[in-house]
Amino acid sequence: MSASITRGQLLSRSAKGGAALLVAGSALGKFVDTAAADPVPAADLAYARLLVGVELLGSDFYAQAIAAANTDKTVKAYLRRAAANEQEHYQSVAAIIGGAGQTPAVAGDIDFSYPAGTFASQKSIVKFAQQLEGTMLGAYLGAIAGIQTDGLKAALAQIAACEAQHAAYFTTAAGGRTFNLSFPTALTIDQASNALDAYTA
Q1: Which residues are paired to 112 by β-bridges?
Q2: Averaged over 36-54, what is the pLDDT?
């Protein structure tokens, strides 16, 4: 990707460029209706921009993991399903920004980078997916706790539940426990932003 956007730009304003949103996912209509009905507070839009960035990272990672062709048939099927989920999640959270009359970031707005060897083997791919999904889940839990617009919380919780499923699968595939914590960690907007910043060029 040739263009880039800083973390500060991502959180403070709408990104340059943009594209028409495709209608997909059960949460999309809820987000559009909520964002268009009443003005969405600036802090909520900051969370939405962060979640757009998180979903773009997830989509980018899964696309590269699938293209690496370093996984067996079963893991690849889960990578493909997760990639499809992240695309639907992106469309849904981007609709919050679009419904507020702003332009959400798109894939070409952010250059992502990964630690050396991330896509070298099935083990490294699964390990990164486990870490990524933990971060994504934490970002959604933090957003649910932090946003002021009640109409957005239920749909964000649906996405968080999906991210928890991803995290459980990749944790098991990495040799860990399917579930452990009674209360998974919620990330503040700054913590989630810092985690995202670690993978942006």
Answers
A1: 200
A2: 88
Cα–Cα distance, 91 to 26 (Å, whole number): 11
Owner of token pair 């990964």: 114
For the chain, the domains span 23-197
3-state helix, strand, coil split of the chain in percent (to 5) is 65, 0, 35
Q: How far apart are CA 160 and CA 157, in angstroms?
A: 5
Query: How far is residue 64 from each of residues 58, 93, 114, 125, 170, measured CA to CA in Å?
Result: 10, 22, 10, 10, 16
pLDDT tens for each residue of 116-148: 999 999 999 999 999 999 999 999 999 999 999
When the pLDDT of each residue in the chain is averaged and rounded to a whole number, the result is 84
Q: DSSP string covering 9-40, please?
A: HHHHSPPSS--PPPP-STTHHHHHHHHHHSPP
Residue type for position 30: K
Determine the residue type at 95: A
Its pTM stands at 0.81
Bridge partners, 200 (sequence order): 112
Region of residue 78 (left: phi > 0; alpha: psi -120 to 50; beta: else) = alpha
In this model, does residue 26 exceed pLDDT 60? no
Contact 30, 151 (CB under 8 A): yes
Domain 23-197 top-level CATH class: mainly alpha
Average pLDDT over residues 53-81: 96
